[in-house]
């Protein structure tokens, strides 16, 4: 069911002509931000499936205490590639994809600021990803040192094999990093300079604020990782000694450089998810976003604070007390802007008129799960507690509550929410709800057991464990398999609805936001005419559900007053 | 009238939440392994405190969400606005300032407990190689070695722990006397490792080339397991060692026995390398070959590994 009355839905179960005619554009070097957005989303979803399969193999190994499914080097390769794919080839580039599609539409631009650069950014992703995954075919396999790739273990390579898994891993991540930096330049420029007339900063949707904050973080922090990886590559291949502890190098410096990016990376992934909640929750609760300005500013606040928290990944890592204490306080402070967001979402749905369609289910489910992820995050900022659970499954559980139960749920909310806009067709609501419940139950079954396992001292990245941990591991593995199954109704729904779904109107959710004012799917240049924005965002309750004003708006407004 | 009732209901809900979250905080002790050091009790107290506050926040907001789902559902085809409020400055100020004060309080509590932990023999952290800076560092450092009754050297390499005791006995078991402050000098030979005994609530990375000390005071006799918590390669899962906490007399007795007897020393990684377990998928990818510990054959060792 959609918000629009049934007579507004054009029933058409014939294959979509646009899709049939235009599917080839998605294989082309298009500079249209919408095509690039879809290219990103579909490509990264394929990587998500691969990363998910690796996760299921890991969970299959962990269902019993001994090592009996994969041998230990393969297990190490599996979790290394699982983490790498999910972070660098799924969430971050998917966010780039959905942001690519939406940001120009939301700010009223015809395209991104640098369309050619945009296309180049995308086209670096598939070869980098294929290169990374192809390392499974090398004689000695993939990188095996975890997605952190800490030296000196990452420098232990097969003798006489210059092209090895670690080498491929570094090259892939550097390429993906360059793609992200180019994307960030494009997003920041677009948001600063391409806004439609009247689209002031405080009329921008929170999603755009979130993307702006996340992409500023990419610009500030990503060069640190790229630099660290290039030095690591020199150590690996050219015999330098930047990070070799027994040759005057310092592996702890690598950790600083790595986490200087990779902690903010969590917010680079999470901020767009928070932005998605800010779009979906008001639309389905029919309320204005409560505390819009606070939520917008909180996005920037999260970005700024998160630059100063990286050492909390290193509390046990030969870190002096003053540094432990300083970064404990800064890490805990992230709870303030994120708390503002969580309170804002809750206040938005309080005393509202809820419509529980699939995007809303995913958004509410994701926001609710973020509470557990966020609270465990504050716990981990407390040094004495972190010293106990660091590198245990408690961290894995906390992290997955953020990256899956919050961010991936938000991504699904976004896909369902903007599916009619992107494809011009509606998805099947029933299948969407089945997908939600399977995902919600599966995700909690998979990731909740990791918290007690970690508290009990089960170390992460082990391929065999003591029998006393088996009970919770069985639950987590079965949950993991359920999570794998949950994706099937989603794929069926997306493919089927793309081809045979009901035709969608321009604004099936009666949502505010410029993207809903153009056709579904939007034309090449997004708008017939660049809109002029004169009203605040999230103007729900207004019968027009629109932020575009007719030319005589002021007269009407004055008259009504 | 309705508004008053609403406030009453919210106040009642908060009282229930306080009681429930306090109870959950109490339960949190049982989620942890047994406490085997004086420090562990303090960490558990902090965890219980954090859990209680976390439960209050989670249940509070989740309760509002579930209540909304149950009672604020829109009638079919009703797309009018629920409440017209776009924001409330007082409320937004309150929910910004309250978490700020709360996290500062949490940080203060954590800081206090951290100070009490007394595990920080941790020293030699930041290498400042320039001669000018070294005295300044030495003067300012708050990570000075703490006094301890016993000192044991811990050696770790891929994939083997070994321990050297005051009488130069070397073993692959960590024996600790109960209720005595014991300094552990941690040394890594090849890659990064992490010293972790869950019952101690203590974890510390061991970095090759750096001297890192920690001080522990075991309080509960029994057998525990030392784990390597930082991924250290192929046989990482096998990087465990037995930790025995015993009375000072038993500890001394063990030292004497160990000096006179050869203890069987089986390295799990070596055993598995020689006879790999049967697995469904075999990659046979490269691995660093685990070495039988050299010090195993020699009971007495005088130099560092």
TrEMBL record, chain A:
Q: State the Gene Ontology terms under molecular function.
A: cytochrome-c oxidase activity; heme binding
Q: What Pfam families does this protein map onto?
A: COX1
Q: Keyword set for this entry? A: Electron transport, Heme, Iron, Membrane, Metal-binding, Respiratory chain, Transmembrane, Transmembrane helix, Transport
**Which residue spans traverse the membrane?**
38-58, 78-103, 115-138, 167-194, 206-234, 265-284, 296-315, 321-340, 361-383, 395-419, 431-451, 471-495
Top-rank taxon of the source lineage equals Bacteria
- Entry GO CC: membrane
Name all Cytochrome oxidase subunit I profile domain ranges. Answer: 23-534
Q: Where is the composition biased (Basic and acidic residues)?
A: 551-561
| Biological process, per Gene Ontology | aerobic respiration; electron transport coupled proton transport; respiratory electron transport chain
Entries under InterPro entries matching the protein:
Cyt_c_oxase-like_su1_dom (IPR023616), Cyt_c_oxase-like_su1_sf (IPR036927), Cyt_C_Oxase_1 (IPR000883), Cyt_c_Oxase_su1_BS (IPR023615)
Q: For the region Disordered, what residue ranges are annotated?
A: 520-561
Report the locations given in the UniProt record: Membrane
Q: How does it sit in the membrane?
A: Multi-pass membrane protein
Q: State the function annotated in the UniProt record.
A: Cytochrome c oxidase is the component of the respiratory chain that catalyzes the reduction of oxygen to water. Subunits 1-3 form the functional core of the enzyme complex. CO I is the catalytic subunit of the enzyme. Electrons originating in cytochrome c are transferred via the copper A center of subunit 2 and heme A of subunit 1 to the bimetallic center formed by heme A3 and copper B.
* Family membership noted in the UniProt record: Belongs to the heme-copper respiratory oxidase family.
Its recorded name reads: Cytochrome C oxidase subunit I
Natural source organism? Nostoc piscinale CENA21
Q: What is the lineage of its organism?
A: Bacteria, Bacillati, Cyanobacteriota, Cyanophyceae, Nostocales
UniProtKB/TrEMBL annotation, chain B:
Domain named Cytochrome oxidase subunit II transmembrane region profile: residues: 24-121
Q: Name one Pfam family in it.
A: COX2_TM
Catalytic reactions of this protein: 4 Fe(II)-[cytochrome c] + O2 + 8 H(+)(in) = 4 Fe(III)-[cytochrome c] + 2 H2O + 4 H(+)(out)
Select a single GO molecular function from the record's annotations and give it.
copper ion binding
Q: Where is the Cytochrome oxidase subunit II copper A binding domain?
A: 147-257
Protein location: Cell membrane; Membrane
Q: Which cofactor does it need?
A: Cu cation
Name the enzyme group at the top EC level: translocase
Transmembrane feature ranges: 7-25, 45-72, 93-114
Superkingdom of the organism of origin: Bacteria
UniProt key word Transmembrane helix: yes
Coarse class of the primary localization is membrane
Q: How is the cofactor bound?
A: Binds a copper A center.
Q: Does the keyword Magnesium apply?
A: no
The way it spans or sits in the membrane comes to:
Multi-pass membrane protein
Q: Which Gene3D superfamilies match?
A: 1.10.287.90, Cupredoxins - blue copper proteins (2.60.40.420)
Q: Name one GO biological process term.
A: ATP synthesis coupled electron transport
Q: What does this protein's UniProt record list under function?
A: Subunits I and II form the functional core of the enzyme complex. Electrons originating in cytochrome c are transferred via heme a and Cu(A) to the binuclear center formed by heme a3 and Cu(B).
Q: Which family does this protein fall into?
A: Belongs to the cytochrome c oxidase subunit 2 family.
- The protein in question is named Cytochrome c oxidase subunit 2
Question: Which species?
Answer: Nostoc piscinale CENA21
């Amino acid at each position: 069911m959609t918000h629009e009355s049934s007579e507004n839905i054009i029933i058409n179960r014939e294959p979509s002509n646009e899709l049939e005619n235009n599917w080839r554009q998605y294989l082309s070097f298009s500079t249209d931000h919408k095509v690039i957005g879809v290219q990103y989303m579909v490509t990264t979803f394929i990587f998500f499936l691969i990363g998910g399969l690796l996760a299921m193999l890991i969970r299959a190994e962990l269902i019993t205490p001994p090592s009996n499914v994969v041998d230990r080097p393969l297990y190490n390769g599996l979790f290394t590639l699982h983490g790498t794919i999910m972070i660098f080839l799924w969430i971050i580039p998917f966010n780039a994809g959905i942001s690519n599609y939406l940001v120009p539409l939301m700010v009223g631009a015809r395209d991104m600021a640098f369309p050619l650069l945009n296309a180049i950014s995308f086209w670096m992703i598939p070869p980098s990803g294929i290169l990374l995954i192809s390392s499974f075919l090398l004689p000695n396999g993939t990188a095996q040192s975890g997605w952190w790739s800490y030296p000196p273990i990452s420098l232990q390579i097969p003798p006489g094999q210059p092209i090895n898994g670690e080498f491929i891993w570094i090259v892939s991540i550097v390429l993906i990093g360059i793609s992200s930096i180019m994307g960030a330049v494009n997003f920041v420029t677009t948001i600063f300079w391409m806004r439609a007339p009247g689209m002031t900063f405080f009329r921008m949707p929170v999603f755009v604020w979130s993307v702006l904050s996340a992409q500023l973080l990419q610009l500030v922090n990503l060069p640190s990782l790229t630099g660290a990886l290039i030095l690591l590559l020199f150590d690996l291949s050219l015999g330098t000694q930047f990070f070799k502890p027994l040759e005057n190098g310092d592996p702890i410096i690598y950790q600083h450089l790595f986490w200087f990016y990779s902690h903010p990376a969590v917010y680079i992934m999470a901020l767009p998810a928070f932005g998605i909640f800010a779009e979906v929750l008001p639309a389905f609760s029919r309320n204005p976003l409560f505390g819009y300005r606070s939520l917008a500013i909180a996005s920037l606040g999260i970005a700024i604070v998160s630059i100063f928290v990286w050492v909390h990944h290193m509390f046990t890592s030969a870190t002096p007390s003053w540094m432990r204490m300083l970064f404990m306080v800064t890490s805990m402070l992230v709870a303030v802007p994120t708390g503002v967001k969580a309170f804002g979402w809750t206040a938005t749905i309080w005393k509202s008129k809820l419509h529980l369609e699939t995007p809303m289910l995913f958004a509410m489910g994701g926001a609710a799960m973020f509470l557990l992820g966020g609270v465990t995050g504050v716990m981990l900022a407390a040094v004495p507690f972190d010293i106990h659970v660091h590198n245990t499954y408690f961290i894995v559980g906390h992290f997955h509550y953020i990256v899956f139960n919050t961010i991936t749920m938000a991504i699904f909310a976004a896909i369902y929410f903007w599916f009619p806009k992107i494809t011009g067709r509606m998805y099947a609501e029933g299948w969407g709800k089945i997908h939600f419940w399977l995902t919600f139950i599966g995700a909690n079954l998979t990731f909740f057991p990791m918290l007690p396992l970690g508290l009990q001292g089960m170390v992460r990245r082990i391929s065999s464990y003591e029998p006393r941990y088996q009970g919770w591991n069985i639950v987590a593995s079965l949950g993991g398999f359920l999570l794998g199954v949950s994706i099937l109704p989603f794929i069926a729904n997306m493919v089927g609805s793309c081809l045979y779904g009901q035709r969608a109107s321009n604004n099936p959710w009666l949502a505010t936001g410029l993207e809903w004012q153009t056709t579904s799917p939007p034309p090449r240049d997004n708008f017939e005419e660049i809109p002029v924005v004169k009203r605040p965002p999230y103007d729900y309750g207004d019968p027009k559900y629109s932020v575009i004003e007719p030319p005589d708006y002021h007269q009407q407004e004055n008259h009504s007053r | 009238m309705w508004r008053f009732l609403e406030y009453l209901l919210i106040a009642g809900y908060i009282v229930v939440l306080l009681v429930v979250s306090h109870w959950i905080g109490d339960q949190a002790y049982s989620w942890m392994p047994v406490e085997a050091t004086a420090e562990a009790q303090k960490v558990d107290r902090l965890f219980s405190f954090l859990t209680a506050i976390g439960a209050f926040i989670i249940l509070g907001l989740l309760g509002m969400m579930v209540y909304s789902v149950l009672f604020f559902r829109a009638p079919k085809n009703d797309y009018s606005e629920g409440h017209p409020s776009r924001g409330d400055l007082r409320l937004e100020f309150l929910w910004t300032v309250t978490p700020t004060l709360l996290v500062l309080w949490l940080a203060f509590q954590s800081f206090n407990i951290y100070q009490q932990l007394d595990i920080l023999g941790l020293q030699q952290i930041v290498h400042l190689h320039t001669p000018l800076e070294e005295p300044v560092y030495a003067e300012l450092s708050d990570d000075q070695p703490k006094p301890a009754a016993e000192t044991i050297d811990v050696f770790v390499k891929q994939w083997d722990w070994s321990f050297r005791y005051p009488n130069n006995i070397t073993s692959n078991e960590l024996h600790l006397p109960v209720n005595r402050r014991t300094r552990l000098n941690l040394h890594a030979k090849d890659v990064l490792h992490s010293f972790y005994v869950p019952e101690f609530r203590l974890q510390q990375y061991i970095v090759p080339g750096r001297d890192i000390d920690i001080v522990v005071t075991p309080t509960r006799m029994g057998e525990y397991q030392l784990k390597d918590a930082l991924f250290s390669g192929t046989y990482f899962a096998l990087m465990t060692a037995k930790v025995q906490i015993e009375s000072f007399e038993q500890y001394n007795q063990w030292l004497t026995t160990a000096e006179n007897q050869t203890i069987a020393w089986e390295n799990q990684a070596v055993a598995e390398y020689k006879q790999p377990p049967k697995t469904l998928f075999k990659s046979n990818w490269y691995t660093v070959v685990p070495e039988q510990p050299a010090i195993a054959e020699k009971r007495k060792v005088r130099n560092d590994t």
